[in-house]
Each structure stands twice: as structure tokens, then as C-alpha cells.
Design brief:
By secondary structure, this protein is an alpha+beta fold. It is 42% helix and 25% strand.
């Protein structure tokens, strides 16, 4: 039997370095035969003898700290026998010092000494190394990075558990092989990924990087940012490639959403201009095509709902639906009660989303020639508590989601809004044209009265000359000079009548295009038409017409405005016939505008009326003398047709109207 004293011989101690940083123990499996200074210090004893007096086996200090821990008894085997029999690559021992657990990697070897089998056990303290490893693994886990290590010589590859977890697999489920990666790469990405790997292995690139998709265990695709580096031996041969996988699916989805939102916003911004240039039907079909593109749908429709909400007006389908899918024949209007499940959006007054139409219960089916339905969204547009329109999309390859519903809601609401706005604009335009026609008719009547005033005197002169000539002939008292004078008077009055006809004919001639004219000339034409009326009412015209700049405008419309303002000023002064009356017309030019100001001393406009005078049919005159359209149409002409501004204010003696026109 080998004694401890024999182990302590100087010759034996020469086999060991007592100053080794590792714990070294010689044992027969049950008792310590020797333990170096490092072990004595670690276990807290002053000497080896003191240690051995209290403990036969170092295994007394082993802690059952973790599942992989080596303890004193491993089944029926002691710790040394267990290690020798199992032949594990790594055995771990946990021992405590000052309340801290230390981790040791344990190596055991058999030694034949004096024909007896003993064991040397070396305990390598890897506590700090394990702590670093744990911190590294935690950092990797926290960063959600998967590791891979590829031996290019043996083609063996290692995928970390996190690498496999990214794809929905446990560590045991997915083999660590190159095919596990290659078989899961998206077909559209595989060629680029292989090329990037080969370029790095051949040394053509300093690093390997490739963004590609890998198929998840559940079937969906995971976006991976794959990065790595090839290592070469001294001969330049690629021996190893190491890299990381980073799941960037959320980033890609965010990028895709941002791109989608940008496209959707661009479409919403484009719709108003499309509505202006397209017919109503063409615009709605274009809107349907855009919502199909955004939602990856194959069919779409817009139907209007009649006021009673009991009948539906079939308005339009998209071109794609009509050309490729829908060949059914419908009446233009039909009862909503007879419509299919898509009309539940009307009946229930909410959006209907169906992602499994074939298996849907209580559906009414589809008419002959209708497109087969797989999934669809039907959406009601509600205005002032009433469903006014139904809009729907269908047959997306995947299920419809909240983003699809939101997109349909945006496009459908904007379509309805723009269609109604254009309809209302057309109605306003028709009403405006009607009012303009009424205004011009009223002006025509006034012009006829002016013609009558203008012609009364010349006709009287002509009649008087003719009577005088007839009387001279009858009395045979013809004086050649007098006869010639009478004839010249008739010709002069005739020319005046002809000139008056030309003036009024020009007023009624419609403007089909803009003319390059001065404002001064338009004012002078208007004053010429009303000259006789002003003379008959003893109204002084004060002019300051210094503007000579030409602008491109509808001159006849502007003359109608001047005539309305001059006529109103004349009529205001007719109510105070005792005062000496005047009307002033002043033209001026600024950097941005030509300005015409027409003022009078007719007493002004009552404060309670001054904000109403541009409203249609508002008038302070009697029904016989006023239609209430003159000032309204004047403002429409100046601001809508001529892009200027017409305003009014009261001065000390009367009212002033100011017309500001841009230089165009």
C-alpha cells in the first residue's frame, strides 16, 4: 500500500511545480495523497498537513452548483472513476471560496507509481473566463445576433442556438449544415448570397455582407443582415469563415411601411389634379386602379347608394375587373336587399372584411359571370348620417389587414369628396352663368333705354329738318343754301346714330378671348355709352386717366363692371336732384396692380347694407329699377374672371368703388 510519506519524497515532488497557478492533486480516488500549495491556499489552510488532517478527499469541497457539476459520488462511482470512465472532453468542478463560487475545468490522468495506479487531477480556474463568456453570450443574446462558424476545410459548420431561434427552430431541430442555410434562402436572393460568399472566400472583398431572406419554420420570410469574414492560412488558403446573422425584419417592414405611406400620400395628393382633367367615370376608375395597386387587389368597385338607402346605383368597376374578371350583367339600379354579402356594409353601416369567402356562411352567392371571390373588403362612405357610397376591393393573394382597410378608407373618402366637389363646382358654374346671363339681359334692357335717350334728340332734329324741307317745297320757297344746311344736319345726325349703334353693338359682343387693352380705353368706352344719360341728369364727370399700360383681359366683361358702377352712381344721385352732382374716375398704377377708383357724391351706402351689396339679389332699389345682380356679377367678373379685387367704402360725400387688377 502506497503511503503518504512516500508521495512526499523529494524525488516525487520534483515531478511537480509546487508554484503552479492551478490546483494539483494526487489521489487514489478516495484520499488525497498530495495537494500543491495553490490548492492549500485556495482552500484556506496554512499547510498541506493541516488540510489532510481534516479532509481525506478534495471532493469534500465540491459544490453541487450546476447540472454539469462533478460531485463526490456520481452514482456508484467516485468522482475520479466517473471522469475516467466517461472520458468527457470537459469536466467541471465548482468550489466555494469566501462565499464566491469558482468554476474549474478538471483534467484527470492515470499514473503508474511503484506499480500502483494513482491519479493526477489538475483544476484549472476558469471562473473569470466563464464570466466573460457569460457576458459575451448575454451581449449576443441581447443584441439578437446569431453566430455561425464555417470550417472551409472540412465543410463543418456551427450555428448558434440564437441563429436557429431566428428561424423558429430549437437547437436540436435544425442540423448545423450548409444545406440548412441554403435550402431556406429565398430563391430571389440565393444567387446574390452565394456570389457574395464566393467573392469573400476568394479574397475579392475584405468582408462578406449580404441582406437576404430566410424562410421561417412557420413559412413566412425573415430578413437577415448576414456579415462575416474569411480567414486564410500562411499560404493564402481560405480555412475558416466566421460571421453573424442579424434579424432586420422589423427594419425592412418599417422601410416598406414608410415607402407604402409615401406612395399612398403621393396618390392622395395627385387625385385632385386627376379629378380636374378626367371625366367623373374615368376619375373613379383611376382611383380604383390606384387602390388596387396599393392593396395588391385584383378586383374593385364603386357603387352609389340612393337617398332611401334601399337601392344601389352600379357606378363603375376598375378596368382590370371589367377586362379580366367580371362579365355579369346588371340593371343600373337594384334593391340592396337582393345584393350579396358585400352589401352588408350598407345594411350594417360598417366595413365588412372577409378573408375566406368560399367557406363563409349565409352568403347569397354570386351572379352568373361574376368574378370568383376569395376575400374582399366592402366599405360604406357615410355623410350626414346616410350611406352615400360603397367601395370595395377583392382577391388579394394574402389576407386583408388593417392597413388595407385604412388605405381603402382614405382613397374612397377622397374619391367621394372630389366627385361631389366637382359636381358642386359645375352647379355653381351653371348658376353663375345663369346669373351672368340675367345680369347681361338686365344690362341689355338698360342699354336699350340708353339708346332711346341717345337717339331721341337726333331723331327729333332729323324729323324737324325733313318737315322744314317739305314745307319749303310745298310753299315753293326753296332756298338752296338753307336746303343744303338742312341736308347736312340730317347727315350729321345720321352719322351720330350710326356711331351709337357701333358703340352698343361692341358692348353686346361676347369676349371669346382676352384682348391687350388699356384700362383707360375701357373706361372711355363705358363713359361714351352713358354720356347722354349723364348730360340729361346734369352729372359732372371728373377724370384722371393717366394710365397707359396695356394688360390682357376680357375687356367687354370689364366694361360691364364699369357700366354697373357708373349706373349705380348715377341712380344714387337721382335721389337728391337738388345737389350739384359729380362722378370721379381715377386710374393709377402701382408695382403690382392697375387700380381704378370710381367715387360719387350721392350720399354713400348705409352701414347696415355695405356688407351685403355684393350678395346676389340684394338691392336697395325698387323691384322695377333693380335686379340685385349688378354688383354681385361685377364682383364675380373682377375676382373670378379677371383675378382682381373689387371693394367698396364710404367717403365724406358718397361711395367709392375700387378695382385692383394684376398685370397678368
Amino acid at each position: 500500500m502506497l503511503e503518504r510519506r512516500e508521495i512526499n519524497s523529494d524525488n516525487f515532488l520534483n515531478l511537480f511545480v509546487d508554484t503552479s497557478p492551478n490546483i494539483v492533486v494526487i489521489t487514489n480516488g478516495k484520499k488525497m495523497l498530495y495537494s500543491n500549495k495553490t490548492s492549500v491556499d485556495f482552500l484556506g489552510y496554512s499547510s498541506l498537513e493541516a488540510l489532510m488532517q481534516e479532509h481525506d478527499c478534495i471532493c469534500d469541497f465540491f459544490e453541487n452548483y450546476a447540472p454539469d457539476a462533478i460531485v463526490k459520488q456520481m452514482g456508484e462511482l467516485n468522482w475520479v472513476e466517473y471522469i475516467i470512465e466517461r472520458k468527457r472532453e470537459e469536466n467541471r468542478v465548482y468550489m466555494s471560496k469566501n462565499g464566491k463560487i469558482h468554476i474549474f475545468r478538471l483534467h484527470v490522468s492515470e499514473i503508474l507509481f511503484h506499480e500502483q495506479k494513482i491519479y493526477s487531477a489538475i483544476f484549472n480556474d476558469i471562473t473569470e473566463l466563464e464570466a466573460q463568456k457569460e457576458r459575451y453570450e448575454q451581449a449576443i443574446e441581447g443584441s439578437q445576433i446569431g453566430l455561425w462558424d464555417w470550417n472551409l476545410q472540412t465543410n463543418e459548420i456551427y450555428f448558434s442556438p440564437r441563429w436557429k431561434q431566428m428561424l423558429g427552430y430549437s437547437d436540436e431541430e435544425l442540423p448545423s449544415s450548409f444545406s440548412s442555410w441554403k435550402e431556406r434562402v429565398h430563391p430571389d436572393d440565393l444567387v446574390n448570397a452565394i456570389e457574395a460568399i464566393e467573392n469573400n472566400v476568394q479574397g475579392l472583398t475584405p468582408y462578406y455582407q449580404c441582406i437576404h431572406r430566410l424562410q421561417h419554420k412557420n413559412g413566412h420570410w425573415v430578413w437577415i443582415d448576414d456579415r462575416g469574414k474569411t480567414f486564410f492560412d500562411d499560404n493564402g488558403i481560405a480555412i475558416r469563415m466566421v460571421g453573424v446573422h442579424n434579424d432586420i425584419t422589423r427594419i425592412k417592414e418599417s422601410e416598406a411601411k414608410n415607402h407604402f405611406y409615401a406612395r399612398r400620400s403621393a396618390i392622395l395628393l395627385e387625385m385632385p389634379s386627376l379629378n380636374e382633367i378626367l371625366s367623373e367615370s374615368a376619375f373613379m376608375q383611376r382611383a380604383l386602379e390606384m387602390v388596387e395597386d396599393l392593396t395588391h387587389s385584383l378586383v374593385s368597385f364603386i357603387h352609389f347608394v340612393n337617398d332611401d338607402e334601399k337601392t344601389i346605383e352600379l357606378v363603375t368597376w376598375s378596368h382590370r375587373t371589367l377586362e379580366n374578371y367580371c362579365h355579369a350583367v346588371y340593371d343600373t339600379h337594384y334593391p340592396s336587399a337582393q345584393a350579396g354579402v358585400w352589401a352588408d356594409a350598407l345594411r350594417q353601416r360598417k366595413a365588412i372584411v372577409v378573408n375566406d369567402y368560399p367557406n363563409l356562411m349565409d352568403k347569397k352567392g354570386l351572379p352568373q359571370g361574376h368574378a370568383p371571390l376569395h376575400r374582399f373588403i366592402s366599405l360604406p362612405i357615410i355623410e350626414e348620417g346616410r350611406v352615400v357610397m360603397l367601395c370595395g376591393i377583392g382577391n388579394k393573394a394574402l389576407n386583408y389587414d388593417d392597413q388595407d382597410l385604412e388605405t381603402l378608407q382614405f382613397i374612397a373618402n377622397e374619391t367621394w369628396r372630389l366627385v361631389q366637389r366637382k359636381r358642386n363646382t359645375l352647379k355653381l358654374k351653371e348658376a353663375s352663368e345663369l346669373l351672368l346671363a340675367q345680369s347681361r339681359n338686365a344690362a341689355m334692357g338698360e342699354m336699350i333705354n340708353m339708346i332711346a335717350h341717345q337717339w331721341r334728340q337726333p331723331i327729333s332734329v332729323i324729323a324737324m329738318c325733313a318737315n322744314n324741307m317739305l314745307l319749303d317745297i310745298e310753299l315753293e320757297n326753296i332756298n338752296k343754301d338753307e336746303f343744303q344746311k338742312q341736308t347736312h344736319d340730317i347727315l350729321s345726325q345720321t352719322e351720330h346714330l350710326s356711331s351709337t349703334i357701333d358703340d352698343f353693338r361692341n358692348f353686346f359682343k361676347p369676349n371669346k378671348s382676352k384682348e391687350l387693352v388699356t384700362i383707360k380705353s375701357v373706361v372711355q368706352d363705358a363713359l361714351k355709352l352713358m354720356q347722354k344719360s349723364f348730360e340729361n341728369n346734369n352729372i359732372e364727370i371728373r377724370l384722371n386717366l393717366q394710365s397707359e399700360t396695356k394688360i390682357e383681359i376680357y375687356s367687354r366683361e370689364l366694361m360691364q363692371v364699369f357700366l354697373n358702377l357708373l349706373k349705380n352712381a348715377k341712380e344714387a344721385m337721382e335721389q337728391n336732384p337738388s345737389l350739384p352732382h359729380w362722378i370721379s374716375v381715377h386710374l393709377e398704377e402701382t408695382k403690382e396692380h392697375l387700380i381704378a377708383t370710381i367715387c360719387d357724391n350721392g350720399g354713400g351706402i348705409r352701414e347696415e347694407n355695405i356688407h351685403k351689396i355684393f350678395e346676389p339679389y340684394f338691392s336697395t332699389k325698387s323691384e322695377k329699377n333693380g335686379t340685385g345682380l349688378g354688383l354681385y356679377m361685377s364682383k364675380i367678373i373682377v375676382e373670378k374672371h379677371l383675378l382682381g379685387n373689387l371693394s367698396v367704402s364710404n367717403k365724406e360725400e358718397g361711395a367709392c368703388f375700387k378695382i385692383k387688377l394684376p398685370y397678368m
